[in-house]
Amino acid sequence: MIFFMYLPRVLWDRMVLDVGYKIPERYSTGSRERKAGSGGAEAFLLAVVCAGRMQDFETSAIAKAMDAANVAHVFRTAYGTLMPRLAAAAFFISLSSLGLSPSGAYATVDAAAPVKAVMDATVANWSGGDSDWQDIFEASKLAELYSKDFVEKYQAAAKFPAIDDDGISPFDFDVIVGGQDACPLEDVTITPQAPAGPITEVVARFKKSTCMGTAAEFQSYTSVRFEVTQSDGKPVIDDILTVDDDGKTNSLKDMMESIVKEQQAQPQQPQ
Q: Which of 7, 21, 72, 240 gives a 20 to 30 Å CA spacing to 65?
């Protein structure tokens, strides 16, 4: 916006001092000034607003014998036509300066980034290699890849390990592949969807059972939907949605809340 505040003097001269320049001589002085007020109103106001030179405008108006009615006409016309355009331009410039897009601030971050990190770890876990298992919910990943609300729900559920008291996870299965067994993942794709308010859904699609047989059921795709939002300007996963064998959509956040409620409802063991 600073650029507009300091337009070169030559632009001012062309737009204000010579605003009657292109109006045919066959019109009277009064008609020419009225046409300048309508056809050149945008030029007048743009120069006045951007250069902040009201005094020059007044001097120019007087020099061209513009009466008060014509001056008022200029501003009425200009405000009615130019100001909405200036406001829109300022809006788009502001978004651009922040690296945002007019379709929504949440459209511009790389929503797929945290999902890719989770899927990379999952692919490595099921690759059949000798590498260590990567916990997609270990502390550093929780801090980097997930929303505050997700982390709070996970930490609450993790107080009730699925395996035994020494376990670290509230789940006894891989929440991405949806089970305790899988083949090396194949044909993995990660596709961000159109943003819906603060949420961008990112769909991870893959085959997880191809090594189990050639039947259609083993060659089918599994889809996992990640709801991604922003936290401190970076994309983070707020929920993970999967579909079970019955076609029901399950929210991982809902599942974690259920774990806590079920455990808290159980009778306390005597110490």
A: 7
